[in-house]
Amino acid sequence: MTTIQTASATSLSATAALSGSNPTNASTHMSGGQAVFENDNYRITAGDNNTVNIYNKNTGENYNIWGDPHVNIDGQHAFDFWGTTTFALEDGTKVTIETVPAGNGMTLASKVAITSGDYGVEISGVDTNQVGDLKIDEAAGWGSTLDWTHDDGNVLQENPAGKGFLAVDDNGQIRKVDQNYINATDLQKNPPAEATQQGGEFLRNLLTMFSGVMTASLSGAFLSALSSALDATESRRQPEPAVRDANRFTLTMVRLEF
User: Fold this and answer.
1) Can you tell me the distance from the alpha carbon of 238 to that of 236, in angstroms, rounded to the nearest whole number?
2) Which spans does this entry mark as compositional bias, Polar residues (predicted)?
């Protein structure tokens, strides 16, 4: 397991101080052949079988992502998706699921990035294209950086006033997420005319390169380089067209009827 963690103060003297905010006491471990993320409000598991399960401890709601990929809400099939999809949960936790081809135009959940405050973890090897490669890479204290290096894809917001998920369409309207909505917004089925780059490609490649080398923790020198690269890349970014982002809207509702 690769753990991204801060080292000594001396080794990080050239970097900006990071907040250690972990407001929901998030942590991740391996148990029974599954990766298990848990905080005060959610328990999220992922196995080496194309499956990700999200359980809301407060409401008892259960979201099961399985197969190629289907989404079941409390045991009932709700919709399928194809491309990268983010499930933005009520407490601010983000679950971004990246997919890989499964053949015949279908995809499988492969990599899961979870962020909660400044805590982050990446779970890889979820798909069955290759078995036995499930692993977790924690980024304690680097959740915001982990989030920044992953495209959100299609963002679905957990419904705070009822079952399922809501989203904001291109017209700024709040929509209940169903198959019709996914068919119109999934970024793999509806690729943009020009791919929007979020400046994270360099960091993704850098993290991938180092992940196969480090087995316990990444050095302070690497964290310093990561922070410097993040600052330099950010300063070169050009203005971009607006994209869907769970952080760009707040839903305040008493009751919604569908």
Assistant:
1) 6
2) 22-31
